[in-house]
Write a structure and sequence with these properties.
The protein is mainly beta and 342 residues long. It contains three helices and 21 strands. The longest helix has 20 residues, at 27-46.
Length: 342
């Protein structure tokens, strides 16, 4: 559990792939993520940080053990990410970037240094990802080629995926309203058959209609205000591709800085299946993450984050019960590169 949280909430923003997924993020969300990544990189570069080590502690453990190591170039880009188990390399990921800090190449290796997967990215003059080549174990043969096209607002309009023989595997078409917000996304198979449809509107959805969402989803984005009058963006989705194939109602909330602050999922009878929340400090960095027991406000896991004077994460503590630490991770920053242990 602690490894999952550390990876998702800290390292994933660094190894960001410049592109939009099928429907879950608008260009606004994408740009906000890129901005947070830029701020992170600038902070790493300004402090001349070249490597970071994550030390894990379980309950009463005072010795600690190395879990992760990240390395950075002079621009603050994450160039290496290493996972350790019992002091030895379990996985090693590498990344390359261009002069604009865009991700141009990514590779993943196992503990013995054997390639597991690799990808290369190509961008247009506007900085949009237009081609991604994916390789599995064999760098001589492209497993998948992904091509993207954009409109004059730099919104993706089409995505095509081709297999190793150049045959179309997947085709996604995106349409937008006049104000630039998403209207509809349609996913086709390689033979042109409609696989899924996402409609972006805010008309009410009845239970009987929602039950029909097998190959069609509905996404609604609207705004409310918090107790201080700040805007809260709320995204509501009805999707048939949910947990165990059931139609779900997912609700996610974002603060004025586009940070996700709450997420929950429900079945069509209104029963809550999952729920978590997050809060942030004045600098916009995550301060607390809480996963709740479904259908209640009882905490299942709670993680708190603290930072050093440079603004970098110093410690994260996971609690399973009130004030008793379940596990702790400390982040150690250095200005010298060290080779990963073998």
């Amino acid at each position: 559990m602690k490894k999952f949280f550390a990876f998702v909430l800290f390292f994933m923003p660094v190894f960001i792939v410049s592109g939009q997924v099928i429907y879950t993020d608008s260009r606004e969300d994408f740009l906000a993520s890129m901005l947070r990544s830029k701020i992170f990189r600038e902070n790493i570069a300004a402090k001349n940080i070249t490597s970071e080590r994550t030390i894990g502690y379980n309950r009463n453990d005072t010795t600690g053990h190395l879990i992760y190591e990240a390395r950075y170039d002079t621009r603050g880009n994450n160039t290496d990410w290493v996972a350790y188990k019992h002091g030895k390399v379990k996985m090693h990921n590498t990344a390359s970037h261009d002069d604009s800090s865009r991700l141009t190449g990514y590779a993943s290796y196992n503990g013995k240094g054997k390639l597991k997967s690799m990808s290369t990215n190509t961008y247009d003059k506007a900085g949009n990802l237009i081609e991604q080549d994916v390789y599995w174990k064999n760098t001589k043969t492209t497993a998948t080629k992904i091509f993207k096209t954009y409109d004059n607002r730099n919104n993706v309009t089409e995505t095509k995926s081709l297999d190793s023989k150049g045959k179309l595997k997947n085709h996604i078409v995106y349409t937008y309203y006049d104000d630039g917000s998403k209207k509809q996304t349609i996913q086709y198979s390689g033979t042109g058959k409609v696989k899924r449809v996402w409609n972006f509107d805010c008309n009410p959805v009845g239970i009987s209609e929602a039950k029909k969402f097998k190959d069609t989803s509905k996404v609604c984005i609207h705004f409310e205000t918090d107790k201080d009058g700040n805007p809260i963006k709320i995204k509501e989705e009805y999707t048939g591709a949910g947990f165990l194939g059931r139609t779900l109602r997912n609700i996610t909330k974002y603060d004025k800085d586009n940070n996700m602050i709450d997420a929950s999922s429900y079945n069509l009878k209104g029963k809550q299946l999952t729920h978590w929340s997050a809060s942030y400090n004045q600098s916009g960095r995550i301060a607390e993450y809480i996963m709740y027991k479904a259908g209640s406000q009882k905490t299942w896991f709670r993680t708190t984050y603290s930072y050093n004077n440079d603004g970098n994460m110093a410690e994260s503590v996971v609690y399973k019960k009130a004030q008793v630490p379940f596990s702790t991770m400390k982040y150690v920053y250095t200005s010298s590169l060290a080779s990963p242990k073998k």
